[in-house]
What does this fold into?
Amino acid sequence: MINATLKHLSSALAAKHISSVELTQLYLDRIATHNPVFNAYTTVDAKISLAQAQAADARIAAGLAGPLTGIPFAQKDIFCAKGWRTTCGSKMLGDFIAPYDAHVISQFDRAGAVNLGKTNMDEFAMGSSNETSYFGDVRNPWDPQRVPGGSSGGSASAVAARLCAAATGTDTGGSIRQPAALCGISGIKPTYGTVSRYGMIAFASSLDQAGPMARSAEDCALMLNVMTGFDERDSTSLQRDQEDYSRDLNRPLSGLRIGLPREFFAEGLSADVGSRIAEAIAEYRKLGATVVEISLPNTRLAVPVYYVLAPAEASSNLSRFDGVRYGYRAPEYTDLADMYEKSRAQGFGEEVKRRIMIGTYVLSHGYYDAYYLQAQKIRRLIAQDFTDAFKQCDVIMGPTAPSTAFKLGEKGDDPVQMYLSDIYTIAVNLAGLPGMSIPCGFGDNAMPVGLQIIGNYFDEARMLNAAHQYQLNTDWHTRCPQGL
Ligand code: GLN
It folds into this structure.
């Protein structure tokens, strides 16, 4: 059961081979056994999960089940879920119980899915290794001495370790794709505006987007069908007809034009990752795709631009955590200003403080024009690079991350090295495009390698088609870490 796809689980539930309560209990038992090692979950609440499973069983018995009814999913701890502790990986929200559901949570609820628990993450989604969480490091199931990637590292670890059927993540600069790559699973960041951000704790609002993390592209498509849709509570949610993201999965790939950006295969890419990507591209040629070299000339500016814009937005978004309205308040203070200062000094971790300081600086009088405004202009150029590239190809492919999973602590003292983990993913967020990562082999250290597929705006179905056809012809996505 733990290796079954969502489709198989759905038919097993419909045929009553297993009940949702049994399936949920199976995962809860696995979490009890393995979570002490991987630390993938921050909160598990068996009572709520089993009650939801019971309700799902009743719905199945009544013949009212949808494709995800009764299936247990893990939810990144960035989504407010009514009655659940929602921490965003921070001491600031260490005992915050959400009073309402995020749009994503209510969509899963409406589908009759079971919430298995909240997954660990980098604090306020800032990080690429899951080492900035107040609730401790998350471990990679392929080697617990190595990081799972971040910030959706808890979700990636939980999916890879079979501690849930699938999970949600969020991606501001790579936080779905990079951990998916490092843990050997599939994950999608949809086109900006496709999934409502309502109730998703904001990091950098113009970049944040939620998406599915699962063991296959096909599973991701089923989850996207549930997660997407217009929501008037998010002013950037797009009003479009509901799509069936599975519709093109089985289309042959002959004629597909794959663009390979020259800049993604330059200095900084590990040789083993480069070889696996080349092998994946060779497989695509066998499947009938053609390959063109393209250029995304502003690639090298993506990381610096992101580290102006994302902290700027974060400094503004995180001003709401003041010790009054939400979460942590310092126990001792002299007056109101002192209470703000102490609550924020004690409630936020190092990386979050670093971002707030950078963000406040680039927005301040005298620096706004030099940094923030310039970065916005370059963001436009980066988006234009993709628009030009998509005149020559249907999808863009390349590595998701420059290396496989690194050791815990390895990049701890060097924020810039850490920031470079997202060098191939960040531009996609800046442009608002959809991107995904699928497993395509293993590196020299036997850790998973991820292939990134970038689509044009709203072209998720084509991206999923390319991913699914590859997964029909390879078995990397079915590999399971030893002992699990
Ligand atoms: N690693 C990037 C950062 O630290 C991206 C994080 C994300 O996508 N949430 O900001």
